[in-house]
V-set and transmembrane domain-containing protein 5 (Galemys pyrenaicus), 190 residues
Amino acid sequence: MGPSSRAPPAGQAVSLYIPQPAINASAAEDVLLSVGYACEGVPTIEWRHAARGSQRTIVAWAPGAPANVSRSHRGRVCTFDNGSLQLLGVGLPDAGYYVVTVTEHRGDSRLGTIALQVSGAALQRRCPPEVLYEDLHFVAVFLALLAAVAAVLVSLLWVCHRCAYKLQAGRRHKLADSAAEELELQDVDC
């Protein structure tokens, strides 16, 4: 007999009980997807997540044996011999439907669904450090780019100023030469 004290109904090798088929949670909260089952022998338990038109396996295990956890959920789930699953630090992408399948060793199985809704209120208070680092890295690169553009513009202004100064000095020199020639011509006319 499984972890439940009840036997499955007559004619069924597996029964499954879901006490809370809909759960509302806040971001960063730990959530328990609670189930109970009854069967003869040791079953295989599998949890899948269905959201946005796709479905992927989260974890599969037999009670008393190590769980086979998907890469996307390693370190984020805890399994229990009664078939329950705990999600640690849920986020908005964790919202959706969780499908549990309990399969008895002869092949009889039962499945159930739990809907999880996640609100993002706590998400603003607890920002993951890697997102913060990426934002700071972007700001640092952007500021370095602005500093480089400013340096180029200041250099161009300096070059333009020097060219304008030389141009004015050349005009003054020409003016002085033409004024001296005019004086010489006036002296000659007298």
In short: The chain has a mean pLDDT of 84. The longest strand covers residues 109-119. The first helix runs from residue 129 to 189.
